[in-house]
Automatic annotation (TrEMBL):
Phylogenetic lineage: Bacteria, Pseudomonadati, Planctomycetota, Planctomycetia, Planctomycetales
Position of the signal peptide: 1-19
Keyword Signal: yes
Gene3D superfamilies referenced in this protein's UniProt entry, alphabetically: 2.40.128.630, YVTN repeat-like/Quinoprotein amine dehydrogenase (2.130.10.10)
This protein's name: Outer membrane biogenesis protein BamB
Length: 413
């Protein structure tokens, strides 16, 4: 970091601290552990798993490789008990196999207006030519408002999407009255595309063909598209950001590859201040104008494979071996906090000024306006847990790590 950058960094921290002293709004902090349960993530020895859960005010929905669980958010028991001898809360069970496992398994859930949308199976970040087809990704919709998790429709190995040659290649997004799903076409040399589906019945409305990367690869990065300003923004495995107009379903612009031949570890996209913010494997944070795809500012965290986590007010929260706060509009550093010897593991939860994450042994929360630690719990010593992805949902803090799902009460002071 240059001398000028260091002076700006220290000034930003001082301003942030001053702002924090004048704020009196309640802030979230980790409360007591409500429950924790061991969850078999799926058959086989998966080297890497990423589970993106969802929650409403009562239930926590956990998408796994071969099933979807609905768990009471308060008690950890099945949301809708059955007469099965070993009731794990599953409302859906799909095919599973331990043969030809890909390098990475990613599953996700979205809940809105009493409808649950899940992606199960395996999304691999291996090159398209060597992807395994044993665990075919399945997109499913459930009624979780008026009925006890009734299955409404699926798009999997035997759906109309697959019949047209397409298969899921990244996590879905629910935008307005459409489901948008990054896909690849098995009949067109794995040509990438975006599929638009009707959320009421899962029917295929349209597909938007994507340009192939300069090196000939077609891989999506795995993250869900992000919608802002009438556009859909997607990330490719080489770091390319693609903008698609929702009005006429066409590609408006794309950036040049950022990752060379590296695989992105964190491919999230965070919109804010008329830009989308992304991280690069070499440690840079870039802000890209949503209108023309031009890079408006860059800040080097000097961290390997950082992640953009979200917005806390007008601050962009990023994570590497520490937690960073940058001005979302200018990239000016506001703060840098954390513990170098115990870096954050997985995703970081943000709610208002509160930023919460877990290390291998601790659950930590701080006030992003001044960097003050507002909660710090010894996971290993107090609860015999290990860290992982941290989520703020349903008025709780949810920790997914070490083949366990744990839920903490979220207090506000």
């Amino acid at each position: 970091m240059s001398a000028c950058s260091r002076r700006s960094f220290l000034l930003g921290m001082a301003l942030a601290a001053g702002a924090g002293r004048s704020s009196r709004a309640a802030i979230l902090r980790p409360g007591p552990l409500l429950w924790s349960r061991k969850v078999a993530m799926g058959e086989g020895d998966w080297p890497s798993r990423e589970v993106v859960p969802a929650a409403d005010s009562k239930q926590l929905y956990i998408p796994l490789i071969d099933r979807v669980l609905a768990i009471d958010l308060q008690t950890g028991e099945p949301a809708w008990p059955t007469l099965r001898e070993k009731d794990d809360g599953a409302i859906y069970r799909g095919p599973a196999s331990s043969q030809g496992l890909p390098s990475r398994a990613v599953t996700s859930a979205i809940v809105r207006d009493g409808r649950l949308l899940t992606l199960t199976g395996a999304i691999s970040d291996a090159p398209a030519s060597v992807r395994d087809f044993t665990h075919f990704p399945t997109l499913s919709a459930f009624d979780v408002g008026g009925s006890e998790g009734k299955l409404l429709w699926t798009q999997g190995l035997e759906g109309t999407l697959a019949a047209s040659g397409w298969r899921a290649a990244a996590l879905p997004a629910l935008v307005g009255d459409s489901v948008w799903l990054p896909v690849v076409n098995q009949q067109r040399s794995m040509r990438p595309g975006l599929a638009e589906l009707d959320p009421s019945n899962g029917s295929l409305r349209a597909t938007v063909l994507m340009p192939v990367s300069p090196d000939g690869t077609a891989n999506w990065a795995g993250n869900a598209p992000v919608s802002v300003g009438g556009r859909l923004f997607c990330r490719r495995i080489d770091g390319t950001v693609v903008a698609v107009s929702l009005a006429d379903r066409r590609v408006e612009w794309r950036t040049e590859p950022r990752a060379a031949r590296q695989t992105l570890k964190h491919a999230g996209i965070v919109p804010g201040a008329g830009m989308v913010h992304v991280a690069t494997p070499d440690g840079r944070i870039e802000a890209i104008d949503t209108d023309d795809g031009q890079v408006r500012w860059t800040f080097d965290l000097e961290e390997e494979n950082p992640q953009v986590c979200g917005l806390s007010g007008d601050q962009l929260i990023c994570a590497g071996r520490r937690i960073w706060a940058l001005d979302a509009a200018t990239g000016a550093p506001r703060g840098r906090w954390g513990f170098v010897d115990t870096p954050p593991l997985g995703s970081v939860a943000i709610e208002g000024r509160a930023v919460a994450w877990s290390t291998e042994r601790e659950l930590v929360a701080l006030d992003s306006s001044n960097g003050a630690v507002v909660g710090r719990d010894e996971l290993a010593q107090s609860w015999n847990l290990t860290g992982g992805d941290t989520w703020s949902m349903g008025g709780r803090l949810v920790l997914v790590g070490g083949n366990r799902i744990s839920v903490f009460r979220a207090d506000r002071e």
